[in-house]
């Protein structure tokens, strides 16, 4: 088994945070009316995407009836609809929707993950829960050897990434920081309904961040392995 696969297996089996374990399993058991007939994942949600990605998107945590239900990050909820439609417009996804783990969606040049892997009550993980989950993200980024640009979707993801790197920087949409390893960190408002319904984050704003990420990723030294040299955003069937 590849190191990244072993890490994902560890994430899926994690039970470090009792409050999060109780919540994710309670939601999966009780469900909501519109999903009563289906099965819920109800476990920590693994990452998804191109393992040779130069761009990594980091969200907050799985949604209770999104990733916690489908078992794939940003899948099955409005936030995911907004995000994946943008990735499709940018040529980074094979289709504009992310409905289920077996919907044949493929990402090219992009990898999607989260700061916290379990659905938290009220979408608010505690600082202690964030600290327990952060090593998974740190290890993951270390294994994604082609990564050149990280897009933090929201302030929590931004703070998590800066805490890991020891760099300071205030979160803002469009903020940009160079990390000690040479990666570029970009700030972007989270594609939550609270932001997208109010116009705080528009499709054009997200497109501009992704365009910036693509430019930075394409202009960076690809380094090793050679497979990283492939064009960012090109879907190969």
Largest sheet: 6 strands, mixed
Beta strands, count:
6
Q: Kindly report the CATH topology.
A: Uracil-DNA Glycosylase, subunit E
User: Structural class, from helix and strand content?
Assistant: alpha/beta
Total individual domains = 1
CATH class: Alpha Beta
CATH superfamily, by name, is Uracil-DNA glycosylase-like domain
Distance between the termini: 25 Å
SSE sequence, one letter per element:
HHEEHHEHEHEEHH
Overall spatial form: globular
- What is the share of helical residues? 25-40%
Arrangement of strands in the largest sheet: 1-3-2-4-6-5
CATH architecture type: 3-Layer(aba) Sandwich
Unreliable residue runs:
222-226, 229-237
What percent of residues are in strands?
A: 5-15%
What is the mean predicted local confidence, pLDDT? 93
């Amino acid at each position: 088994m590849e190191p990244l696969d072993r890490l994902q297996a560890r994430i899926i089996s994690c039970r470090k945070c009792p409050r999060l374990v109780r919540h994710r399993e309670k939601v999966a058991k009780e469900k909501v009316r519109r999903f009563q007939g289906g099965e819920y994942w109800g476990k920590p949600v693994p990452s998804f995407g191109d393992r040779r990605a130069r761009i990594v998107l980091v969200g907050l945590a799985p949604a209770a009836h999104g990733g916690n239900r489908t078992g794939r990050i940003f899948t099955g909820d409005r936030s995911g609809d907004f995000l994946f439609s943008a990735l499709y417009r940018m040529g980074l996804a094979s289709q504009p929707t992310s409905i289920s783990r077996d919907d044949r969606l493929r990402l090219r040049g992009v990898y999607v993950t989260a700061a916290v892997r379990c659905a938290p009550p009220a979408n608010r993980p505690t600082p202690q829960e964030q600290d327990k989950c952060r090593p998974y993200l740190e290890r993951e980024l270390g294994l994604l050897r082609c990564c050149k640009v990280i897009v933090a979707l929201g302030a929590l993801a931004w703070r998590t990434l800066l805490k890991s790197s020891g760099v300071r920087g205030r979160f803002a949409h469009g903020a940009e920081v160079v990390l000690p390893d040479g990666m570029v960190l970009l700030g972007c408002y989270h594609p939550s309904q609270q932001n997208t319904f109010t116009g705080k984050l528009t499709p054009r704003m997200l497109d501009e961040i992704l365009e910036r990420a693509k430019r930075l990723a394409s202009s960076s030294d690809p380094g090793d392995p050679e497979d990283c040299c492939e064009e960012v955003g090109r879907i190969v069937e």
